[in-house]
Design brief:
- The chain folds into two domains: about 120 residues, HAD superfamily/HAD-like (Rossmann fold); about 70 residues, DNA polymerase, domain 1 (Orthogonal Bundle), CATH 1.10.150.
- The protein is about 40% helix and about 10% strand.
- The protein contains eleven helices and five strands; from the N terminus they run βααααααβααβααβαβ.
- The chain has a five-stranded parallel β-sheet with strand order 3-2-1-4-5.
- Strand 4, helix 11 and strand 5 form a beta-alpha-beta unit.
- Helix 1 packs antiparallel against helix 5.
- The radius of gyration is 17 Å and the shape is globular.
């Protein structure tokens, strides 16, 4: 019986467009590749930012070192956050409805800058990000990245939940496969879509 639902953030709740990030940097005269925006294929020195092993200031300096020494902190932040779109209101309403019957949790591979900006998308009907979930687990705070088993095991331990009683929702098959191997139930929707009608939960 499902008692808990563990949500991914990017692509599942908040809609993303990574091309907006690369376009924003291009407008600054900087060509960036997928290694900047793909948390599963980033260069190691950028992935450290996702894992919370690099400060925001160190991230700025790293981006300047790799791509262009003339970029300002503000330019980097604006371009970096350009990939963040909206969280549709129907998904926020869904969370509020599900919270009446289940414990809800968030597990996201994300960094301090994306979360500081993206969490504002949860501001809705007087609610904030923390109001939609029992607990929020972010890679830069727990220092683990999906799809590592350590990320899921740490969340299960900190949240006090059992995998067999938990549905994990992520738009990337590799993360769902890793969760399934640990006993989680999973659902893998297409990113940036309205997947509510396809969701079934075993009671």
């Amino acid at each position: 019986m499902i008692k808990n639902i563990l949500f991914d953030w990017g692509g599942v709740l908040i809609h993303l467009d990574k091309s907006r990030c690369t376009s924003a940097f291009r407008e600054l005269g900087v060509e960036v590749s997928d290694e900047l925006t793909n948390p599963y294929g980033q260069r190691a020195d950028l992935m450290d930012f996702e894992k919370g092993l690099m400060t925001v200031d160190e991230f700025h300096d790293t981006v300047r070192r790799i791509y262009s020494p003339t970029l300002t902190d503000e330019q980097i932040d604006v371009a970096w956050n350009a990939l963040l779109l909206d969280i549709p209101s129907y998904k926020l309403d869904m969370l509020l409805e599900l919270k009446q019957s289940y414990r809800l949790f968030l597990l996201s591979n994300t960094n301090a800058l994306h979360w500081a900006e993206g969490r504002k998308r949860f501001d809705y009907k007087g609610y904030r990000a923390e109001d939609f979930f029992d607990q929020i687990f972010l890679s830069h705070e727990i220092h683990e990245l999906k799809p590592s088993a350590e990320a899921f095991l740490k969340v299960a331990q900190l949240a006090g939940i059992k995998p067999e009683e938990t549905l994990f929702i992520d738009d990337l098959a590799v993360s769902c496969q890793a969760a399934e191997a640990l006993g989680f139930h999973t659902y893998c929707p297409v990113a940036n879509t309205d997947w509510r009608g396809e969701l079934t939960i075993d009671r």
